[in-house]
Design goal:
Blueprint lengths: L5 H23 L1 E5 L2 E5 L2 E5 L3 E7 L8 E6 L2 E8 L18 E8 L4 E10 L2 E9 L1
Antiparallel strand pairs: 1-2, 3-4, 4-9, 5-6, 6-7, 8-9
Length: 134
């Protein structure tokens, strides 16, 4: 039987966990640079029924007047901006994990025609209902 140092195994597991956490963080808060303005993508859930498509977008701290929803070709596009809650000039940032600034999320739609129906901002989520036409 070959002897194996248990501390190496523990460090390997810890590194694997950190890599997984980093991948999840990048998946939910992807930063992209389009032109000069950095944008981020909020996470979404999409549900489909016989009559509608419901898209739930996590947008805590985003005011309703900061949101724009459009259907562009085969996708629905959610655009907006989350402002920094504190003035940057007077605060020293110790940690910054929540993305701020302009965002855009493009969600590809299944085949068919859709019309923006109900738009509700509740508990930090945009609940968007797209009605199926025809």
């Amino acid at each position: 039987m070959k002897w194996r140092d248990p501390t190496i195994s523990i460090w390997d597991e810890a590194l694997d966990m950190l890599e997984r956490a980093d991948r999840l963080h990048r998946q939910f808060f992807q930063l992209e640079h389009q032109g000069r303005t950095p944008t981020w993508e909020p996470p979404v859930d999409v549900f489909e029924t016989e009559l509608e498509l419901v898209i739930i977008t996590a947008l805590p701290g985003v005011a309703a007047e900061q949101l724009a929803v459009t259907i562009e070709g085969p996708a629905v596009v959610i655009r907006g901006q989350r402002a920094m809650p504190l003035p940057r000039e007077t605060a020293m940032i110790r940690r910054l994990e929540i993305p701020y600034g302009q965002f855009e999320r493009r969600v590809e739609l299944p085949p068919g025609q859709f019309q923006v129906g109900q738009r509700l901002l509740k508990d930090g989520c945009l609940i968007l209902t797209l009605n199926k036409l025809g």
